Amino acid sequence: MNTRFDAVIVGLGPVGAVLAALLGQEGLDVAVLERSHEVYPLPRAAHYDHEIMRVFQRVGIAQEALAHSRPAGAYEFRNAAGELLMAARRGDEQGASGWAFAYMFNQPGVERALRARLTQMPNVSMHMGQTFRSQVQHADHVEVLADGDNGETVRLEARFLIGCDGAWSPVRESLGVALEDYKFDEPWLVVDTIPLDPAQMPTANLQICDPARPTTCVQMGPGRHRWEFMLLPGEETEAVLKPGFVEDLISDWGVDVEIERRAVYRFHGLIADRWRDGRVLIAGDAAHQMPPFAGQGMCSGIRDAANLAWKLTSVLKIGANSDLLDSYQAERDRSVRDYIELAIEMGRVVCTLDPVLAAQRDAAMLASMQANAIASPPPVGGPGKQGGIFVAGDPLAGTIFPQPVSVDGLRLDDALDGRAWLIDRLGGESASDLRYIAASDPLIAPFRTALEAWLEENRVEAVLVRPDRYIYGAGRADALLSSWRAALAADVALQTVV
Fold it and tell me: Which is deepest, 27, 28, 56, 317, by most CB within 10 Å?
């Protein structure tokens, strides 16, 4: 077995699998250590958005993901009387990334699609039944030890080690990283079901703000539905998991379902103070955890993977300075904090148990609804600019570059490759770090009108789009190219590539 790799990833959940796929597509040698042999068979995450579908598109599983997903539709907050307190109708319309704004999905199906994709990459190896034990950093590599469930110890060497190993991350523990606690800690009973009569099921995703029992009711992937019930003071895990408790709660909804899983989770907000220590990094739940009310837990982890993948590729493949990796936490920490704080704010609305406070909340939200009708919440979660790889002071920097979709369903990303893009009206010489292309190039002819309209609307000559499809900056092409090369601080000459 090969024991030397560009990257060793610990954990083969969605975050680790996406990171492995992104690195593998760039030709890097990747090993993934996973203690389980099979995909966990029951759903955990329930939601992803258009940005994440764009990542799935990039790694080649978009159609497989769609088979286990459905547009999210409405997300409504209602009180105990059923009155609408707040609604965000952001599911069926198209997001900037060229896909539906949001999806509900069945996680095991998407994970299996990711693993199947990895088996198609000869430079990516999955080591199942391997539990991370320890790591030691050296000048040019990390030594990684893992214990196999066959009793053997495996020793690997990697230029970088990335822990995507969940909330109880052994990789994070090996670094002695502390967690900042947002002091939001609520126990909830999560119940996954298979509807026996889909016509009975609610068509909106619901937060029931009932002080007698705050409840969540949401669609999952096709053929599944989830309820989450807040545990009340004095209720213990053992008691609520006994037969009959869940059944009584769901009977109030008047639906016929098969209960697939019942489990108690604690919803909390945590974030690691360090995401990088030399050649070792953490991502996903290892770096941050958040309540589910905004539906951004897994999404945030996959954004970590997309951010980290292009920066590791730049260091490992084109010789960018390793200090580039310091921008990973600088950009992702701000985004994650925004989502944690949004989720906690939403959770505090839902989790109100005091009837008097709940009545005051209802009155205020009903008044707001009457004044503003149905409004989508303001966007949050953009990358942090301070310490990030963006053109300073550019209002377009750090926003998502839209993905045009042609009338026959073609998407821009599929016409180009995984490098950064420098797009203007004339084009220029491409190199290993970017694709320099004219908006009028025949290769992207189906998107010419949309791209030229974007340049005209924003009154810029050119735009440089990072590999994670956030805008680096917009303006003059020569200035963008010079600035981008300085930001990467490449240690070796960049090769000209068609």
Answer: 56
Tokens (6 digits) for 192: 């996954």
- For residues 318 and 314, give the distance between their C-alpha atoms in angstroms, rounded to a whole number: 5
Ordered by start, the domain boundaries in the chain are 4-67+105-179+270-343, 180-268, 412-488
Q: Which fold has domain 180-268?
A: D-Amino Acid Oxidase; Chain A, domain 2 (3.30.9)
- Report the topology of domain 412-488: Glutaredoxin (3.40.30)
Same fold, 180-268 and 412-488: no
CA dist 69 and 104 (Å) reads 6
Q: CA-CA distance, 240 to 380, in Å (whole number)?
A: 35
Residue with tokens 């909804």: 253
- Report the Cα 71 to chain-centroid distance in Å: 17
Specify the CATH superfamily of domain 4-67+105-179+270-343. FAD/NAD(P)-binding domain (3.50.50.60)
Per-residue confidence of the chain (498 residues) as pLDDT tens digits? Answer: 568 999 999 999 999 999 999 999 999 999 999 999 999 888 789 999 999 999 999 999 999 999 999 999 889 999 999 999 988 765 567 889 999 999 999 999 999 999 999 999 999 999 999 999 999 999 999 999 999 998 899 999 999 999 999 999 999 999 999 999 999 988 999 999 999 999 999 989 999 999 999 999 999 999 999 999 999 999 999 999 999 999 999 999 999 999 999 999 989 999 999 999 999 999 999 999 999 998 999 999 999 999 999 999 999 999 999 999 999 999 999 999 999 999 999 999 999 999 999 999 999 999 988 776 555 555 678 899 889 999 999 999 999 999 999 999 999 999 999 999 999 988 999 988 999 999 999 999 999 999 999 999 999 999 999 999 999 999 999 999 999 999 998 554 455 444
CA distance 237 to 229: 12
Model pTM?
Answer: 0.95
Q: Give CA–CA dist 184/290, Å, rounded.
A: 9
Residue 215 has what DSSP assignment?
Answer: E
